[in-house]
Design goal:
Elements (H helix, E strand, L loop, with lengths): L6 H9 L6 E6 L14 E8 L8 H12 L7 E9 L11
Parallel strand pairs: 2-3
Antiparallel strand pairs: 1-2
Length: 96
């Protein structure tokens, strides 16, 4: 990962191989600052549409993203909320 990239840009770079048609990364860390039990690491919400998710279950989609994020999930990212869709799926439904 190139030095100097913001954490959202690092996330985007890690997921580039999935060829997202749409990707939104929202840093929600400020909303969690000072909460009881809060630990180091950032909180993010990811919304992504990719043909790579076609035919995969919700669990398989999440596993694929976690695999791509690798070491970021082991330290820099504390929490990641994901809404993952294949093209043509209704992205207004609940998180997949």
């Amino acid at each position: 990962m190139p030095d100097g990239l913001s954490l959202p840009d690092q996330i985007r770079a890690c997921l580039e191989g999935l060829k997202p048609l749409e990707i939104q990364i929202e840093d929600q860390s400020a909303a969690h600052a000072g909460h009881a039990g809060a630990r180091a690491g950032a909180h993010f919400r990811l919304r992504m549409v990719s043909a790579s998710f076609q035919g995969l279950s919700r669990l398989q989609r999440h596993q694929l993203v976690y695999q791509r994020l690798g070491t970021l999930m082991q330290g820099r990212i504390h929490a990641l909320t994901m809404s993952l869709y294949a093209p043509g799926e209704d992205s207004t439904r609940s998180a997949a």
